Amino acid sequence: xxxxxxxxxxxxALPEAALYWPARRALIVADLHFxxxxxFARWGQLLPPYDSLATLDALAALVARTDARELWCLGDxxxxxxxxxxxxxxxxVKLRALTGALEWTWITGNHDAALAEQAAIDHCxxxxxxxxxxxxxxxxxxxxxxxxxxxxxxxxxxxxRIRARGRAVARRCFVASGTKLILPAFGALTGGLDVxxxxxxxxxxxxxxxxxxLEDRLLRFPIAA
Length: 225
Fold this sequence. Notes:
With 225 residues, the chain is of the alpha/beta class.
């Protein structure tokens, strides 16, 4: 874990595309997109149906590694609002074990907004919120350009694409400004949006940086506005 300061809080960026908040023993992830493959299968596009299990295995490993007691999911945890109902039994058992062991909160996103109105999420445990304010930090799915309070969000699946030693390299990354911190997508079956995309720049404003977490250091790259 690589510690850094954001809005007066010490946070840790993890290479696995997650954030750890030591003071709360909280693990924060965004854009899990559980059951994305099964959603595409309904429309005739067949993908390997193991995305939910792969994401859950990675999440369980991080929970064990960090000894987290809280877990916050910043929206689009399911690829659609019925995703919880489609979870295979093995994935459901893994998820229920995690939500039963932690203080687990689902923040709704644009893909799974209806979870706040459905009882179906009870099959998966945890509580559902539209957004939350925790120790002075706002936790929501999509960054609000007009929000002046410090904010953690997801939604954009940011990726940094550079050329290194003559090769094109793409890495999931965080995007940070003085009051905005956008998390990369954690899900196993998620793409990414270039960090200098106009929508990301609009969300965070000028002077933002892409943060790439390695095991022993945090690489910072300025984002052209």
